[in-house]
Specification:
Two copies of one chain form a homodimer. By secondary structure, the first copy, chain A, is of the alpha+beta class. The first copy, chain A, is 32% helix and 28% strand. Chain A is elongated and about 65 Å long.
DNA sequence: TTGACATAGTGTTTTAATAACACTATCTAT
DNA sequence: ATAGATAGTGTTATTAAAACACTATGTCAA
């Protein structure tokens, strides 16, 4: 069923940079390509945008189809339009980045897509198309955004310790943080609710568990509050 | 000369939110539409992306064709992909925002396009398509970005006074700033070069003229410097 | 020529935020 | 009982931000 237009049109795709945190390490979800071009090469999950779906919908559909991911944090990143970024024809790609609570999704992702794998951010293989460039853009965005918006919680399990949170920030920002100053600051926002539970792993003192309070964040935001690590 | 594809494709456009500063007021450049849909309605300058040009090139071409603008500050903003944003068919638009030194361009713009006009940001008419929404996004971006990147200078003439600069920030941020603190801070960056000239307008003390030093900014940026008003 | 007017230009103090820094607490496993 | 490992806790010094008022220098009109 062909479709005809007066002028040539670019194909439109979405590509998703999916970040996860695994054992304190920042990881990236990649799909191994089954078809040419770049057959066998690792690539960002993504695909063509259908005419009856929005861009966000397309990104979420591809995440579900290719990686079994649902209900993740997703935000538009940038649109890549270099003329020769796809060797076949003109393809413009709207890139997204997603933050995944790996604790929730690990099991599923493993089953849904055999060709999907998590790679440490420090050890990403050669990528198809201009995906390396998209990844670089996403990392820069993540580093910028994590400072003034509480999106880091999207990478942690619902219940987490302050040490886990600090470690997350250290990994993303690539810098060591002072433990006392970090805890003081992050608690001062009153966005973290201490739970009655503690986490006991390893032979040492158990750690207090917290959860992030998104409702409270929304309220504070309306009052002109500014999260800033 | 028709072009045929296996699946239906969205049309791809660029739209530009063009800001200028005129007599201390923030203004927006709009084009009056000659064709349906929204004939006669004001709209952001923009148009279809050609298959042989990048998105940035398309945006610059449209700015030149529709408004006679060249060599302006231009940055990608966001890509708008609601399914029904164009009543004719599926159209995805990559939005840009541009900052124009109105002092340079006013004369040209007036001649090149009779149907182009500058509107005060506080008094924008009804707009075609979802352009009001694009404008809102652009304003939010401008307000955010102006704080930590020296893009404000793109709106001022090459030579400007500190009062003009302060007024610009006050207009964009919608807040009054303390004169002494502002001057102290902005001069502390050492990004402004005092000129040997002064500006004499009105019956009062003439003001020192400065220019922005982009080279110095690039150097400082590499050293991890952070512009932040 | 003088004075009214309008904007340019200039420092200090107070307050708040950030940065630097080291020890005690509590659990497990041997 | 203790060694080992991470959790948890305050104070001081330093730096940045905010608050604040007067003098300087030009034009223009009387």
């Amino acid at each position: 069923m062909p479709h005809t237009y007066q002028y040539p049109r670019a194909a439109l795709t979405v590509d998703c940079v999916v970040f996860g945190l695994d054992e304190g390490e920042l990881k990236l979800l990649l799909i191994q390509r089954g078809l040419e071009p770049f057959q066998g090469r690792w690539a960002l999950p993504g695909g063509f945008v259908r005419v009856e779906e929005t861009l966000d919908e397309a990104a979420r559909r591809e995440l579900a189809e290719e990686a079994g991911l649902r209900n993740v944090f997703l935000e538009q990143l940038y649109t890549f339009g270099a003329v020769d970024r796809d060797p076949r024809e003109r393809v413009v790609s709207v890139a997204y980045y997603a933050l995944v609570k790996l604790s929730d999704h690990r099991a599923k992702a493993a089953t849904d897509a055999a060709e999907a794998r998590w790679f440490p951010i420090s050890d990403v293989p050669r990528l198809a198309f201009d995906h390396r460039n998209i990844l670089r853009t996403a990392l820069a965005r993540l580093q910028g955004k994590v400072r003034y918006q509480p999106i880091g919680f999207e990478l942690l399990p619902a219940k987490f310790t302050l040490s886990q949170l600090q470690h997350l920030y250290e990994v993303i920002l690539g810098a060591e943080l002072d433990k006392r100053n970090f805890r003081k600051k992050v608690l001062s926002f009153e966005l973290l609710v201490p739970l009655k539970e503690t986490q006991m792993i390893g032979r040492h003192r158990p750690a207090q568990l917290f959860r992030f309070d998104p409702d409270r964040y929304e309220k504070l935001k309306k009052r002109g509050f500014n999260f800033e690590l």
